[in-house]
Amino acid sequence: MLEIVLASSSPRRKELLEQLGLKFKIISSNVDETADEDDVCLLAEKLAEIKAYEIARNLDPGYLVIGADTIVCIDSEVLGKPKDEAEAFNMLRKLSGKTHKVITGIALIESFSGRKIISHEETLVKFRDLEDQEIMRYIKTGESMDKAGAYGIQKVGAVLVERIDGCYFNVVGLPLAKLTQMLKEFDIKVL
Predict the structure, then answer these.
(1) Is residue 134 part of a domain?
(2) CA distance 141 to 156
(3) What is the pLDDT of residues 67-78, one digit of tens each?
(4) Is 60 one of the catalytic residues?
(5) Which of 39, 69, 84, 129 is catalytic?
(6) The domain spanning residue 83 has which CATH number?
(7) CA 172, CA 115: separation in Å to the nearest integer?
(8) In 3D, which of 116, 28, 109, 38 has the Cα closest to residue 71?
(9) How many domains does one find in the chain?
């Protein structure tokens, strides 16, 4: 059986994999999270593949590397992780009262053989109308700074969200149902 490696230092992805009861180790990838791709779904997949490949190519046989990349997109503009509070404010102001897409690319790559499966999940997220003071108070929680789109749905950021259409766990950073189906292709079963 393959040993699982998560190519991410994201505490959210770690928690989600633990939630599935999977045994795994973490080897964080240090790749540049920019790529030249107009289609955001392909961009998320490409970045996930680059992250997984960077780790898989340096491992002995017997490992399955999970790479993931989450992108927040509104009106074809990609919102990455904010560089500072001012950028976080501008991102949240853009999202206020509107629906945006959250896309997570997932790549599973087997070490040595290079066998891979790549896919993505897309979720629509509708923010309620936000007042500037609310945005500033949210930014002061510190949740904005290490997340695409400057928010996290799993904690205080939940109050920003009016509704979602699609996979909640995708918005957190790892679509569990999609991942579970992909793992089956490598004979790894959660249930």
Answers:
(1) yes
(2) 8
(3) 999 999 999 899
(4) no
(5) 69
(6) 3.90.950.10
(7) 27
(8) 38
(9) 1
CB of 173 closer than 8 Å to CB of 103: no
Domain around 7? 3-184
Residue 189 in any domain: the answer is no
β-pair partners for 3: 63
How many whole angstroms separate alpha carbon 86 and alpha carbon 21?
39
CB of 175 within 8 A of CB of 106? yes
> Any bridge partners for residue 116, and if so which?
109
How does 40-51 read in b/e, with b if 16+ C-beta sit within 10 Å?
bbebbbbbbbbb
51, 52, 57, 60 alpha-carbon torsion, rounded to 10°: 140
Q: Please name which of 116, 118, 111 lies closest in space to residue 4, comparing C-alpha atoms.
A: 111
Helix (H, G, I), strand (E, B) or coil at 13: helix
For 107-163, the pLDDT digits (tens) are 999 998 999 999 999 999 999 999 999 999 999 999 999 899 999 999 999 999 999
What is the reported pTM? 0.93
Identify whether 191 is part of a domain: no
Helix (H) or strand (E) holding 168: helix 168-172
Any domain includes 106:
yes
